[in-house]
Write a structure and sequence with these properties.
10 helices; alpha+beta; 13 strands; seven-stranded mixed sheet; 427 residues; 2 domains
Length: 427
């Protein structure tokens, strides 16, 4: 190895320092500056690497009401590579704003029939986000080289209404300006803190949300004074800071999805949560019309309205439907139930659904989550996902391919586990 123009002793010190920095970031699950391609973001990450590492340690050792785990890829399944990546703190450049982003999993499990969406979000905010804001403001200086502090926290949601059992996740996103984050950490009263939240960017499952602390119902978003996120002076919009991407088997990176106000899609190798939210805003009126006009006919689940999502390198339009079929799980296999759910319940509805979906080609596939209804209330139902490529779905509706052809080109999951499906099992 050559170090041109540098004394060998100096070179060794630089190499040693780089190795030590790499060892520290690996040991504490911190994003390494070597992964970052954006020069501005990389410089900020290098400047604050010791504080970020210390912050990571503080969060890991803090006792929350429920376990909290930093996570870089929030949708990674247990056992997948992305599920082991705890590098949930990093600087990102989003729409010209330098944002300190923190993402993680809060292991609280809420029952949708007992707590409203606002109550769930409020609890997660006060127990997790507020605690971490205080840790951040103690360890990261309030400097002008970054603009905002953003959080993306997911937690578990259970719904057992109307005889259906559904396990899912909900995502709370909060983006403070730098000044508001530090001010929030110093405020004591609910009224003072609520005032700061009213002009911060807050989303639940990507939908703009008027979080009301300690209340059952949220505030009306349109009545709040929320300025659009504006690019910092002299800054340019760039791609996400981290070069690492997660493939479809590893999970979803939310590295650039820290604020969705007037989000602009950026050119990159894989879509981000921000891209999904851009589509959600663009087609929200159409999705609302589908739910309102055809919701009952299509058996759409009220708790999970149609929504755009990102899974690996694909953007999906997700529908959740409640099956009208009842199964005796002790007498049928998961394969037979999956085949019957598709052939006898979902397939007859595909033509109606496909006619109503947006014609925009900004997404890749439709994910139909079918909530199975157990024949007896003593046995929980199951969720079967049929993830169908958009072009294959249109070919099926046009009678160009068979139901089995469509299944062969799709992904079928039973309670999150992929299976191979032969529709002849219906017979």
């Amino acid at each position: 190895m050559r170090f041109e123009g540098i004394a060998s002793s100096t070179a060794l010190k630089i190499l040693s320092g780089a190795m030590m920095l790499s060892a520290i970031t690996q040991a504490f699950g911190q994003v390494s500056p070597d992964e970052i391609t954006n020069p501005r973001v990389k410089a900020t990450e290098v400047k604050y690497i010791s504080q970020l590492t210390s912050l990571h340690q503080s969060i890991e050792t803090t006792r929350f009401p429920y376990p909290f785990k930093l996570a870089r890829y929030l949708n990674a399944k247990p056992g997948q590579k992305g599920a082991l990546d705890s590098a949930g703190i990093e600087f990102v450049d989003f729409q010209g704003q330098m944002v300190l982003k923190l993402s993680g999993i809060y292991s609280a499990r809420f029952d949708a029939s007992q707590l409203s969406r606002n109550q769930r979000a409020s609890q997660v905010f006060q127990e997790a986000v507020s605690t971490i804001v205080r840790l951040i403001t103690r360890q990261i200086p309030q400097a002008s080289d970054y603009d905002s502090i953003g959080f993306e926290i997911i937690y578990e949601l259970h719904d057992s209404s109307k005889g259906y059992e559904r396990e899912g996740k909900e995502a709370l996103t909060v983006v403070f300006s730098r000044e508001d984050a530090f001010a929030y950490a110093e405020r004591v009263t609910i009224a003072e803190r609520q005032s700061i939240l009213n002009h911060s960017d807050i989303f639940v499952n990507g939908e703009a949300f008027g979080l009301a602390l300690g209340q059952r119902d949220p505030l009306i978003v349109e009545a709040l004074d929320r300025p659009a996120l504006r690019p910092a002076e002299g800054a340019t919009v760039s791609a996400p800071s981290s070069t690492s991407q997660v493939d479809s088997s590893s999970g979803v990176s939310l590295s650039s999805a820290v604020s969705f106000t007037n989000a602009v899609s950026v050119t990159q190798s894989a879509p981000t949560f921000a891209d999904a939210m851009r589509l959600q805003r663009a087609f929200q009126s159409q999705l609302d019309a589908i739910a309102a006009e055809d919701g009952a006919k299509l058996h759409l689940a009220e708790i999970a309205p149609p929504a755009f999502e990102v899974a690996g390198d694909q953007t999906l339009l997700h529908f959740t439907l409640k099956s009208t079929l009842g199964f005796d799980r002790s007498a049928t296999s998961i394969y037979k139930r999956a085949a019957m759910s598709f052939d006898l319940f979902l397939a007859p509805e595909l033509r109606s659904i496909t006619r109503r979906i947006p014609v925009d080609q900004g997404f890749d596939a439709l994910d139909f989550s079918v909530l199975g209804r157990s024949a007896t209330e003593q046995v929980s139902g199951e969720t079967i996902d049929y993830i169908c490529p958009l072009d294959s779905l249109r070919s099926f509706v046009a009678n160009k391919i068979t139901t089995q052809d469509l299944i062969n080109r799709s992904v079928v999951l039973v309670n999150g586990v992929r299976i191979t499906l032969n529709l002849q099992l219906v017979e």
